[in-house]
Write a structure and sequence with these properties.
The structure holds 2 protein chains of 2 kinds. Chain A is α+β, with helices and mostly antiparallel strands. Chain A is built from 24 helices and 17 strands. In chain A, the strands form 3 sheets. Chain A has a 6-stranded antiparallel sheet with strand order 2-3-1-9-8-10. A 6-stranded antiparallel sheet of chain A has the order 4-5-6-7-11-12, with helices on one face. A 5-stranded parallel sheet of chain A has the order 15-14-13-16-17. Classes of the chains: A alpha+beta, B alpha/beta.
């Protein structure tokens, strides 16, 4: 729960103040440092354990670091400086940092291994700017803002923004697990961490696999406790968050659970209650319905910083608000289990692989893109001819997948799919949205399953320890067996189902119809009105009759339009 | 008649040799030349089976769609003809015959004839467009307009490896749909039903052959597998779920959910019933006495339903909704 910013080139204290002012919800204290040809800014909450206490400065360097390391260190900024020469091998946690070598006039930017924290940068008129959030860069008044249709096109397929580019031309972000060195405006970026599959045959022994997973999971949770006496945990009712709650309860801190309540539409409310009761932890249900989401929608879009087309972001924002109202500063979640240990999301790809090539020549990359269930394959129906022309040629989305789905760094199909899931769904969707919805309410979010050592262990496990028959996350289930009720451990997972379609046809309808009105669609000139109108009327796709797909698609479009109003039309200023 | 290429609505006198007077492109059909449908009506039939291009479909679906769209054809048309003939015969006899006894005798003969003719007509179970005629239309359509992109085309599986990824076959599926026809398997797979629902799809007779045994082995790895049967309303089809639940090579002792079609689903498709290939259908093995009686006279193919209806019905079944999916 903090943020940084800065520049190399022409800048001023006033500029840094504006950039820090754009993220006033990320802290009550700020620090700035102006050097001859550079400036750094840092905002944070006083008194939070594990955080830097300001910008670290010496004669030869200055460091601003947002976030924390895992395990905790006294000063993350000093830790970054220590690693500048040593390298970031082994570094873990949730951090984004800028290190400026005064003598060499070289700026080094670094992000945590999985991308909990973000870093954006741009070069304009010879000056290099960077910041934790996009809205900080947009606070630079001289920076031109122009939408990038190619990135919007990718967002409409993935439901989030993948890769280095964002939907504003000229602004990029540092990828997770990367270090970038900037000198004279030239950026050279390289990874310091990239998961790869390295199967350990010893782990074919089930007892050994369970033992090491148990130790790794517990360690990952405990490494993210920075001395807090009281933490929250978001319980979904699934085994991942239940396992995190279990290890937290065993660690001796006071734990309070929070779970969503969708009323009659709830799918896993009862399971969350069973877990909390079993662990003897207090549980607070957080009511979430369409009216609640409607009330917070614009603030949510603003705080998210980038468009996120998964409707779960609204309920997550409400969860974070409830945790903050309970005077918590730190929350844990169970995100990452599916990506690391072979969750249910792998199953469609396995089905497709078995029957591949029977009717059409569809590549594995194309099938993977289809699995996001947004607008892949619908482009002709959705896009106007002008937008389609602006998007350009084919292959732009597949290029994000090529390093993973046919990767040599994995020896199994499941391994390849998980590499893709971690790099895209995990690092560029799940983690940043979790961090931003928590940040929206001044919370530090800890995601212990996205732990570097635990991830390396997951990639050393044979595939059948992850997906055994049709039982997903098999080894995690074995770890929790006899620790949690069997009904929780061995229940088939369905995924969180946000009743967005029902909400959009109810309390959210007015907002959706405003954002996606014919006039709004026509003004943007990107989409065909008839297609959007069909969605608003609630018509399902004939090959996928799930009604929730309507809500997911409408949310994706409405989120984009709201994001464009705030970040393109309004230059990232807080909506009123 | 409207040209589907340029939308020009031409008069009969304007057309020469089945050619649009505006764009000079050929029509596939011309009702004035004896065809039963116009190009536009045939295109609408394709749009209907493909759900406006969103679904892949088989030629058999188009055949039934054309049967549904034949001008003047109604499911109860034959009954109306019988009743109208009865009334006509009565009045004709009464007027023409001077002697009332002759009139009654003629009327009696006419009624007996009409009853038999009516029975013959209503029990003949012949579709309104013959397959031969439809095939000619389909050939003609493809010659003029090309093969529709959404039509289901099965690629050869002879040299297709199951997968190049060895670990894939070590997993399993959450559920399986077993069909009585390979073409039904095609319909579900080509529309990504397996992908959307983590669902294996096989035919009882071993289709698709290159993955059949592999998938069956995978299915055995899931003790909580959900099993569904999808079939025509035929004797063999209606016995499918029973067979699956009692055959040691399949799922002996497990619950198998019968999605349909069964005779009680046929009410909405009366005009699309056909003669059963095998009759009489014996009672037992999952077929009730009432069903056996119906199945000995009629059969209803799944292809008589639009692909969208079939996919939705199976989806409803696997979603755990216990009401009748095809009802």
């Amino acid at each position: 729960m903090s943020g940084i910013c800065g520049y190399v080139g022409a800048g001023s204290s006033a500029l840094l103040d504006r950039m820090l002012g754009a993220i006033d919800y990320r802290g009550d204290t700020s620090d700035t440092l102006i050097l001859d040809n550079a400036g750094l800014g840092y905002r944070w909450w006083q008194g939070r354990p594990g955080k830097s206490h300001g910008i670290e400065r010496e004669n030869t360097f200055a460091v601003a670091c947002a976030g924390t390391f895992a395990p905790a260190v006294n000063s993350p900024a000093i830790e970054v400086h220590r690693r500048i020469d040593l390298g970031f091998d082994g570094a873990d946690g949730a951090f984004a940092a800028a290190h400026f070598d005064i003598e060499a006039e070289m700026l080094t930017l670094v992000r945590d291994p999985f991308g909990v924290r973000s870093l954006y940068y741009t070069v304009h008129a010879g000056t290099f700017y960077f910041a934790s959030e996009l809205k900080q860069l947009l606070a630079i008044e001289i920076l031109p803002i122009e939408i990038d249709p190619v990135v919007v096109h990718k967002y409409l397929t993935f439901s989030f923004v993948p890769g280095e580019h964002i939907p504003i031309k000229g602004i990029r972000r540092l990828l997770p697990g990367h270090v970038a060195r900037v000198k004279h405006g030239v950026v050279e970026s390289e990874p310091y961490f990239a998961p790869s599959e390295n199967i350990d045959r010893l782990l074919s022994d089930q007892n050994e696999a369970v033992r090491r997973t148990r130790i790794g999971w517990r360690r990952a949770v405990e490494n993210r406790l920075n001395g807090e006496q009281r933490v929250g945990v978001f319980l979904s009712g699934g085994i991942d968050s239940a396992g995190v709650a279990y290890w937290l309860a065993r660690s001796g801190v006071d734990v309070e659970c929070f779970s969503l309540d969708f009323g009659n539409e709830s799918v896993e409310r009862e399971q969350a209650r069973i877990v909390a009761d079993h662990l003897d932890l207090p549980l607070r249900f957080v009511a979430a319905d369409g009216a609640d989401i409607d009330a917070i929608f614009l603030d949510l879009v603003w705080k998210l910083d980038l468009p996120f087309g998964d409707p779960v972001t609204g309920p997550q924002y409400l969860l974070a608000r409830a945790a903050r109202e309970a005077d918590l500063e730190t929350v844990f979640n169970g995100e990452g289990g599916d990506q690391l240990f072979g969750g249910w999301t792998n199953k469609p790809m396995i089905s497709a692989e078995i029957y591949a090539g029977l009717y059409a020549e569809e590549s594995r990359e194309e099938t993977y893109l289809r699995s996001y269930h947004r607008f892949y394959g619908e482009e002709d129906a959705l896009y106007t001819s002008q937008f389609k022309a602006d998007v350009g040629g084919p292959g732009q989305r597949r290029s994000h997948l090529a390093p993973y789905v046919s990767s040599d760094t994995a020896t199994t199909f499941l391994g390849r799919m998980r590499l893709a899931d971690i790099a895209l769904k995990g690092s560029q969707n799940i983690l940043p949205r979790a961090e931003r919805t928590a940040n929206a309410w001044g919370l530090d979010v800890r995601v212990p399953l996205f732990d570097r050592q635990l991830a390396e262990h997951a990639f050393a496990l044979p595939s059948t320890m992850k997906l055994r028959g049709a039982a997903e996350k098999y080894v995690l289930k074995l770890v929790l067996q006899n620790r949690l009720p069997d009904d929780i451990v061995w229940r088939r997972k369905f995924g969180m189902s946000v009743p967005m379609t029902e909400w959009q046809q109810g309390p959210l309808g007015t907002t959706m119809r405003d954002l996606l009105s014919s006039n709004a669609i026509r003004t943007r000139g990107m989409f065909r009105e008839a297609y959007v109108e069909r969605l608003l009327e609630g018509r399902v796709h004939p090959a996928d009759p799930r009604r929730r797909r309507i809500g997911e698609r409408l949310w994706t479009l409405a989120m984009l339009e709201a994001w464009m109003r705030i970040f393109i039309d309004g230059r990232g200023r807080k909506p009123t | 008649m409207i040209c589907i290429r340029c939308d020009y609505d031409s008069k009969r006198r304007e057309r020469f040799q089945r050619t649009c007077p505006k764009c000079r492109k050929s029509f596939a059909f011309d009702p004035n030349g004896g065809d039963i449908l116009t190009d536009l009506a045939f295109q609408n039939a394709i749009n209907a089976v493909s759900s406006n291009g969103h679904l892949r479909w088989g030629v058999e679906h188009l055949y039934y769609e054309v049967c549904r769209r034949r001008p003047g054809w109604r499911p109860h048309g034959r009954t109306l003809i019988v009743v109208a003939s009865l009334v006509l015969v009565f009045f004709a006899t009464y007027i023409v015959s001077a002697h009332p006894y002759a009139a009654y005798a003629t009327l009696f003969t006419g009624v007996v004839f009409i009853i038999y003719a009516g029975r013959w007509l209503t029990s003949r179970n012949q579709l309104p467009v013959t397959l031969k005629k439809f095939n000619r239309m389909w050939e003609r359509w493809q010659q003029i307009h090309g093969r529709p992109e959404s039509v289901l085309t099965r690629r050869s599986t002879r040299d297709t490896p199951v997968t190049s990824e060895p670990d894939v076959v070590e997993y399993s599926f959450d559920r399986v749909v077993i069909c009585d026809r390979a073409r039904t398997v095609d319909l579900l797979l080509a529309n990504n039903f397996h992908f959307e629902n983590n669902c294996a799809v096989l035919s009882i007779e071993g289709y698709p052959p290159h993955v059949f045994e592999t998938v069956r082995t995978m299915l055995r790895r899931n003790p909580r597998l959900e099993i569904y049967a999808l079939h025509d309303a035929t004797g063999a089809g209606c016995r499918l779920a029973h067979r699956l639940a009692h055959d040691a090579d399949w799922f002996e002792g497990r619950e198998v959910i019968d999605v349909g079609l069964r005779p009680h689903h046929a009410k909405r498709y009366r005009g699309l019933l056909i003669e059963p290939k095998h009759k009489p259908v014996p009672v037992g093995n999952g077929v009730s006495k009432k069903e056996a009686s119906w199945l000995s006279v009629y059969s209803l193919e799944l292809a008589a339903l639009r692909p969208e209806q079939i996919i939705r019905a199976v989806f409803i079944a696997i979603s755990g909704h216990h009401h009748d999916s095809f009802g």
